[in-house]
Amino acid sequence: MGMVTVTARGEQLELRPFTLADTTDYYDLVRDPAIAASAGFTPAHSLTEAEFLLKQQAKLPQIFAIELVAYHRAIGSVGLYERMTNTGEPATLEMDLGYMLNARYWHRGIMTAAVARILQYGFKTLHLRRITASCLANNPASQQILVHANFRQYDAVRHPDYAPFGAGQTELFYDCVELNP
């Protein structure tokens, strides 16, 4: 199922399921150390590793490739992940937002448009009541995307220096309970 949206610059995007044909584009995305650090994973070191990661993402039904239609390339990923409660159970009618974008396409409004479209999908199609997200405090672009999409910050946690993700950094937690009016 593809979902189409348009950026403020008029660039057409399609949110669609990943396929193995996206492996090279996905490798460009997941081998970037800056993207990996912000998203909380270790960069891929080979095309084979990227293919393995892509196959894992493709199993998740609410995760979509962001295709820049003019170039027929997967330039990023946006989706909704299962959210767990404090007791380790899946949260009812709540999901976590996750996204990443190839650095060549930053600051063009692409992720802002993709997030707006995925929120529409989450609230109107999946009938979610709450969507959460987080980002590191040193990532003002992600903070801006979330605030623009009607998320509000509800917590901040400083990770210990030995943490595998965001060691010594502060992670900001956001939630959204309705679409922008």
SSE map:
Elements: E1 3-6, E2 12-16, H1 23-30, H2 33-39, H3 47-58, E3 63-68, E4 73-84, E5 90-101, H4 110-125, E6 130-136, H5 140-148, E7 152-158, E8 170-176
Parallel strand pairs: 5-6
Antiparallel strand pairs: 1-2, 2-3, 3-4, 4-5, 6-8, 7-8
Helix pairs in contact: 1-3
Domain N-acetyltransferase: 13-151
Organism: Lactiplantibacillus paraplantarum
Pfam family, one: Acetyltransf_3
Structural notes for this entry:
- There is one protein chain.
- An 8-stranded mixed beta sheet has the order 1-2-3-4-5-6-8-7, with helices on both faces.
- It has a single domain (3-176), classed as 3-Layer(aba) Sandwich (Aminopeptidase), CATH 3.40.630.
- Helix content is 29%, strand content 33%.
- It is α+β, with helices and mostly antiparallel strands.
- The radius of gyration is 16 Å and the shape is globular.
- α1 crosses α3.
- It is built from 5 helices and 8 strands; from the N terminus they run ββαααβββαβαββ.
- It has helices at 23-30, 33-39, 47-58, 110-125, 140-148; strands at 3-6, 12-16, 63-68, 73-84, 90-101, 130-136, 152-158, 170-176.
- A hairpin with a 5-residue loop joins β1 and β2.
